[in-house]
Records
---
Amino acid sequence: MQPDKSPKNCPFCKIREGKLPASLLHEDELVLVIVDLSPINEGHLLIIPKIHASGMADVDPDTLAHMMRLAQRMNAALRKSSYKCEGVNLFLADGEAAGQEVFHCHLHVYPRFKGDGFGFRSVKGKHFVQAERARMDAVAQELQGLL
Ligand SMILES: [Zn+2]
């Protein structure tokens, strides 16, 4: 079944419209910052553009830049907070294969600490294996042509 990418049933649009509750810590003309309903660790935040766009490609670049500026501020706030925070991850899942579950682009900002049990899974011998320079050059060349 195809995921529902319309704003009609979008939980983040409903939060923006006040139709669903949220713990809001920042709002401006471009974005909302709320506390994640199902946190990886306490202090997990979501930075959400106000305008519905399912994927990153559809978000205005100035809004994306603003999201990153806010992520820096949220990172600093988390590090000063009472929540356990030895490091911070930023995570933006763009597409179902990348782990996107709510199809309204959003940026996760969440505190991390040693032993929190969260992490990406990798397969030894498949991931993080040093690539050959020729392949790396081919990747750079192909993508340069697509910018
Ligand atoms: Zn939405």
---
Amino acid sequence: MTRAKALLDGLRLPVIAAPMFLVSGPALVIAASRAGVLGTFPALNQRSTEGFRDWLEEIEAGLSTGAAALPYGVNLIVHKTNPRVEADLRVCVEKRVPVIITSLGAVPDLVKAVHSYGGVVLHDVINMRHAAKAIEAGVDGLVLVSAGAGGHAGTNSPFAFVSEVRRIFPQGVIALAGAITTGRHVAAAIAAGADVAYMGTRFIATEEGAAPPAYKQMILDSRISDIVYTPAVSGVHGNFMRDSLVRAGLNPDGPAPEMNMDKKEAKAWRDIWSAGHGVGGIDAVMPTQALVAELGADFDCALGELQRWRAHAPAPAREKVA
Ligand SMILES: Cc1cc2nc3c(=O)[nH]c(=O)nc-3n(C[C@H](O)[C@H](O)[C@H](O)COP(=O)(O)O)c2cc1C
């Protein structure tokens, strides 16, 4: 078994609580990893590399169990627009962060640096071209950001995407993302061929999520039809909640407005709230531990139902087919 698969095998539930700008910090990471899924956060949620190091120390302390520490992950944006990437990576190496999730650039040197201390690299992609490039760079796993995901979502069907990537990445870890909201969805992701479900939006509506209360309330009040896929906020297509676009003076039903928000992207994400298609299945803000327990119970129900179908399959007919 690869190191990446062994790490996931140690989870209570095959779920990664995905990194979310302005939402995931130490409280959510610690609560998620303690509950038995993999907690993660973007390094850029801290304003400086020094602050980032402080957060890692806080997380290490929160996850040390006396025996082996529980795993967690950090998201690094590997792009020339992120001047901190090298310094943040050095801190990750020093602190031996168990999982690094890279966005935008899949760089062999970074993979080498993370492997040097036994860490695992997952890279997030929205299409086959980027998946192939990341595999070539030597990543341990891919995050397939499919249609309906929160943040900068892709447009591929998760079913088709996971099958096509599995053909070119038979031994790698595949995390599937896009509106995964319930334990049944987690089971569906595994049944479809993924190793782990990657869930963002559902974890915004947790007590430990750092989003303001009005953001969490909008998640509860929104339905799939309230999610708008637009490049207006950051220049790259992403999913955002309609009411937050309207409040910012944008017309979600008109043509994508010409907005040069690149330099103000952090502010844009603060005022315009991202969420995926899964919002309609979210009815309560919960403590993360209770959420993971609920996901686990729902996951078990789904497995029970799949198992029932196995019993239904008439064995003689199967033999005939074979
Ligand atoms: C508010 C918000 C902020 C996000 N910020 C980041 C980020 O900083 N880095 C990143 O790699 N992905 C980011 N994402 C994407 C998530 O990591 C994940 O791919 C996505 O939420 C999964 O889809 P789901 O929200 O439908 O579960 C963000 C998503 C949301 C909703």
---
Amino acid sequence: MPLDKKTLEELKQSLLKEQGDLEKSLGKIAKPVDKKTGDYDTTFENLGTDRNDNATEIEQYTDNLPVELTLEKNLQSVLEALKRIEKGTYGFCENCQKEIEVERLKANPSAETCVKCG
Ligand SMILES: [Zn+2]
């Protein structure tokens, strides 16, 4: 473990906070399919059944989809990072297996690679 306990705990707290924020934003435009893996489905309000209503729904869905996918991707990397903390493999570059710089982790606690590989 390249990180001392205090730093690791700080990073874990920011990951948990980020997880909460992402879940909140996702909850507005999507419904959770599997909370453990961070899998969400984009929802759209059922405004009505006539043709104009359906067009609005599709428009809304098309607007939300890329946002949802980005948030979902972020949430999944946060969850992955938390899993790595549990397993004790957190803080190592997925590419070269070297320690990830602490400064980089502080800026982005879910970073999976070191500065060189990222
Ligand atoms: Zn690396």
---
Amino acid sequence: MKIIIISGTPGCGKTSVAKEISNLINSKIISLNELAISDKFSFEYDKDRKTYIVDFEIFLPYVLEKIEEMKRESPPYLIIESHFSDIIPEKFIDYAFILRCDPDELFKRLELKDYDMKKITENLQAEILGNSVNFFVQKQIKAPLFEIDTTNTDIQAVANIIVDILIENDNGENYKIGKVDWLQKLFEEDRLKDFFD
Ligand SMILES: Nc1ncnc2c1ncn2[C@@H]1O[C@H](COP(=O)(O)OP(=O)(O)OP(=O)(O)O)[C@@H](O)[C@H]1O
Ligand SMILES: [Mg+2]
């Protein structure tokens, strides 16, 4: 069983793309966010940030147990998707795909999710700074790491790109990390002040 991590800032399309991939290849999905909430690992609610605080010390062993459980069912692929999927230890990762999205488009997607302005700004800043990629780079993982710009590529097309890389129809050269740089783009457009005050 190969384990595929799908990460990225909220709104980049992780859940949608994971579901689409599972329509294309025989795979199981673990959505860490859903698991964390459904199985009550979120003991505290951060009212200010309108978000649950997950106790990773007990959540991670539970997730690893779930992975072992899935292994026994032996699907060819297990997709783990979440904006905090970098919590998964390297030895469990066969591929990591980080979804990216232009901040202007991400703004629209997050507005549709009914996020308040504070949460939208926080997520846009994280995307501009490339936090989702940096988490993996800092871990120096040896598994292949790809980033896919989803701004003008629909959900199905993003899923196809990932599947093509997995089945080695595509060597993934165009999706090696380091090509997406919103910071540079906004700097050149003199628009950084629109996102950071
Ligand atoms: N490639 C895409 N093109 C256009 N719209 C997209 C794309 N990917 C996702 N969307 C839309 O963006 C919204 C957010 O997608 P989704 O919920 O899959 O993101 P997510 O990364 O799982 O977010 P979260 O971290 O909050 O769970 C949805 O309305 C979805 O339809
Ligand atoms: Mg999601």
